[in-house]
C-alpha cells in the first residue's frame, strides 16, 4: 500500500481530534482527511512546528485550523491564536472556515483584522468580551500560546 493510500484510509477520529470537532466535520460533510490533513494534524496536535505545502483546494486550512482549535480555551476572553495571511480575501476565507469548524464550540470567536477597514472598529471587536471594554490605543503585541507576535499599525 502506498503512503497516499495509507493516508486516505485514516479517519479524522484516527488523528486525535475532539468529539466536538469530529461532529462538526461530519455535519459539514468531511469524510476522510486529505493527505495534507492526515500528515499535519497529528504533528500539530503534539505542539510541534511544521511547514506544509499542497495544491489549492486540498484542505490546508483545516490541516492547521483544526489542531489550533483544539488548543483554544473558550473560557479565556483574550486572543489565543494569530493566523497571518498574505491577503484580505484569504483572511476572510480562513476566518469563515474557522467559524464553520467552531459550530459545536460555544464561545469560540473569530475576528479577521486587515487593512482598508477602520482599526478602531476592529479593535473594539477584538476587545469584546473582556472585562475592559476600551481597546488599547495601539495594538503592539498579541499574546498567544505563550509567545508574542508583532503586529503592525498603519500609523507607524
Summarize the helix and strand pattern as letters.
HHHHHHEE
> Poorly predicted ranges (pLDDT <50, ≥5 residues)?
129-156
Percent of sequence in beta strands = 5-15%
Number of domains: 1
Radius of gyration, in Å, reads 17 Å
User: What global shape is seen?
Assistant: globular
Q: In CATH terms, what is the fold-level topology?
A: Rossmann fold
Structure annotation, total helices: 6
Q: What kind of oligomer do you see?
A: single chain
Helix content range: 25-40%
Largest sheet: 2 strands, antiparallel
Mean pLDDT, all residues: 77
Q: How does CATH name the architecture?
A: 3-Layer(aba) Sandwich
CATH level 1 name? Alpha Beta
Distance between the termini: 55 Å
- CATH level-four homologous superfamily name: P-loop containing nucleotide triphosphate hydrolases
What attributes does this structure have?
mainly alpha, Rossmann fold, 6 helices, globular
Describe the structure.
There is one protein chain. With 156 residues, the protein is mainly alpha-helical. It has a single domain (3-113), classed as 3-Layer(aba) Sandwich (Rossmann fold), CATH 3.40.50. 39% of the residues lie in helices and 5% in strands. The protein is built from six helices and two strands, in the order ααααααββ. The chain has helices at residues 3-9, 19-27, 35-45, 60-70, 88-101, 119-127; strands at residues 141-144, 147-150. A hairpin with a 2-residue loop joins strand 1 (141-144) and strand 2. Helix 3 (35-45) runs parallel beside helix 4 and helix 4 (60-70) crosses helix 5 (88-101). The chain is globular.
Amino acid at each position: 500500500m502506498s503512503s497516499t493510500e495509507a493516508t486516505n484510509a485514516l479517519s479524522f477520529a484516527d488523528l486525535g481530534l475532539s468529539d466536538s470537532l469530529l461532529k462538526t466535520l461530519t455535519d459539514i460533510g468531511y469524510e476522510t482527511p486529505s493527505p495534507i490533513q492526515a500528515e499535519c494534524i497529528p504533528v500539530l496536535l503534539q505542539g510541534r512546528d511544521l511547514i506544509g505545502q499542497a495544491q489549492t483546494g486540498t484542505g490546508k486550512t483545516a490541516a492547521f485550523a483544526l489542531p489550533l482549535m483544539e488548543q483554544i480555551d473558550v473560557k479565556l476572553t483574550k486572543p489565543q491564536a494569530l493566523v497571518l495571511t498574505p491577503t484580505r480575501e484569504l483572511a476572510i476565507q480562513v476566518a469563515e472556515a474557522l467559524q464553520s469548524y467552531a459550530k459545536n464550540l460555544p464561545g469560540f470567536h473569530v475576528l479577521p483584522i486587515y487593512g482598508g477597514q477602520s482599526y478602531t472598529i476592529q479593535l473594539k471587536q477584538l476587545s469584546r468580551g473582556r472585562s475592559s471594554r476600551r481597546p488599547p490605543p495601539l495594538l503592539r503585541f498579541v499574546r498567544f500560546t505563550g509567545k508574542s507576535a508583532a503586529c503592525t499599525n498603519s500609523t507607524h
